[in-house]
Amino acid sequence: MNAIKLVITLSLTFLAIGGTGGISGGSKPGKGKIGIGPDTPWTQVRNEVKKNFNLQISGDYVFTGYPNSAFKVCIDGDEFRTIQKRPQYEVRRVNRSQDNDGDRDGYTKIVVGYEYDRFPLVYDSYRDECNNHDKNCKRVPVTINQSTVKNVKINYVVEKRGSRENGRTEKTELFDKDYVIPYCEN
Q1: Is residue 185 part of a domain?
Q2: Residue 21 or 180, more confident
Q3: Average pLDDT over residues 69-79
Q4: Which among 125, 11, 119, 123 is positioned nearest to 75, based on CA atoms?
Q5: pLDDT at 20
Q6: Within a domain: residue 186?
Q7: What is the mean pLDDT of the chain?
Q8: CB atoms within 10 A of CB 57
């Protein structure tokens, strides 16, 4: 009798662990499965990406002195500006007991204010042009025109593990959609 109870308990445990998708992981995603598509508003797309760790946004970066998401910047005149202010730091000499950056060298960074990061839409840069199999290189000035419309891709990412934990990720592009960077409100 105890053996029958044990078998039933183990069977129910395996069914509960397996879930509704079973061992194979369930069906593949589609617009009906994830609830978003090319005609879905950006706020809903971004909320769905935050909720589902298999969804990923790519191609949304602009340069603001460092790579920044197009969703976190706006256009202010002829430059990109971050929507939120970032802390501005200054290195100051302090007592070693107040040195909280891990160095214990008597200097630490202190927040002295908050400002927007700004970067022009059109800027000059340099690129290396090489001839003869990278042996004859020279720096050439170029003008970079940043686009205010980004073609953003929504991908479905699945991580697959093989033997000896040599994993790989597979990306499937669900759709792409244009995002127009808005003008700043203030």
Answers
A1: no
A2: 180
A3: 93
A4: 119
A5: 44
A6: no
A7: 81
A8: 19
Domain extent, residue 111, equals: 2-180
Number of domains in the chain: 1
Does residue 47 belong to any structural domain of this protein? Answer: yes
Q: What is the per-residue DSSP string for 5-57?
A: HHHHHHHHHHHHHHTTTTTTT-PPP-HHHHS--TTS-HHHHHHHHHH-TTEEE
Q: How is residue 19 written in tokens?
A: 């879930």
Length reported for the chain? 186
Residue 66 C-alpha from the chain's centroid: 14
The model's confidence at residue 22, banded by pLDDT at 50, 70 and 90, is very low
Spatial distance between the Cα atoms of 64 and 57, rounded to a whole number of angstroms: 19
The values of phi and psi at residue 154, to 5°, are -110, 120
For residues 52 and 45, is the Cβ–Cβ distance under 8 A? no
Instruction: Tell whether the model's pLDDT for residue 109 goes beyond 70.
Output: yes
